[in-house]
Structure formats: C-alpha cells, structure tokens
Amino acid sequence: MSRKxxxxxxxxxxxxxxxxxxxxxxxxxxxxxxxxxxxxESPGCSxxxxxxxxxxxxxxxxxxxxxxxxxPTTTISAIAGEGVTVNSPLIKIVSAGDVLHFIGSTANTQFxxxxxxxxxx
Length: 121
Description:
By secondary structure, the chain is mainly beta.
C-alpha cells in the first residue's frame, strides 16, 4: 500500500467540518437550515456539490430537502422527507442554497448537521 500523505490508500480520513450546526426541536415544530456555500474551503471544488451528514442524537427526526416536512401519521401516506434514527446518520448530496427542513415528534429532540465540500469540478 502507498503511504502518500502519511496514510495508506485503503484508509479513510475525515477532517472535522468547519460547518457544523446543532439544533433542538420542539415537538411537531418544523425548523429550517439553508445550506451554506462553502466551496471556497476546497479550491477546485464545485459549490453545487456538498455532502451533508445529519445525526439524530436522542430521538428520531424527519428531514426533507426544499419541501415542508411533517411527522408521519398513523396511516401510510407519501411524505416529503426521510427519517433519521438515533445512531444512524443520513448522508446525502445537497447544493448551496438548498433548504433543509427538520421535524420531530418528541420535545427537546437534539440533532446535528455537518457540511463537507463534495466533488471536484
């Protein structure tokens, strides 16, 4: 294995995000976060391709991209969004300027959001 930059090519090294947000949700109350433009942090990368990692810390949450999100009801229905359970982060590609919508059914639900520059131009 090659040791370019002091680590082997089979290792994955992830730096701390300089674009980290934490939130506290009231029960059934939506909050939003606009995706920042962080392309300047990695020259040669596109601002339109960011990686977001969303983590639910103490209770499940639901997240949608550019659409209002609601807590699922007791019936099966289509929703705009995806569930994020505790200890199972949601990892997606988003664009600068997109709006993430968050909601939870439990009061004082804590969650974290981290952004990383995505793909090269």
